[in-house]
Amino acid sequence: MSSNEPRWTQTWLGGLRSAGVDLGYPGQRLGLPEEGSGSVSGWGRRIAALVIDWMICTWAITQLLLGISTAEQPWVPAIVFAVQYVVLVGFLGQTFGHRLAGIRVAAMDGGDPRLFPVLVRTVLLVLALPALIFDRDHRGLHDRVSNTVVVRM
User: How does the protein associate with the membrane (predicted)?
Assistant: First the structure.
């Protein structure tokens, strides 16, 4: 084995990129631009949007508006989160957190997602595990099942 060839461990420890395989940028296979509006959202924006939405649901809505203690009923914020997610993404294409982070949920044809796929996406998102299984285009299992992608605005 010459010094220019990657070691066999590089392909499974570091992934294909470390072995010199060019996979392109996230969204290239989907026909999306590499940067700017319409490009696949990065993890930072998605996590920021999720944190903002979760804070709104747990603190502002559940505790202030509904007066429910999350210590006594810890499942209520998840239900509030799911309801606001279905309503806002289903009708506007984005939640408050998405808006503040500059991202939106788009159907694979570029338009707003339909209500039933948003409902399925929300159920999988609330379960958390499907959102942690993702592909090289930053699409979680919940995105793939609902045929959506999170893009920058």
Answer: Multi-pass membrane protein
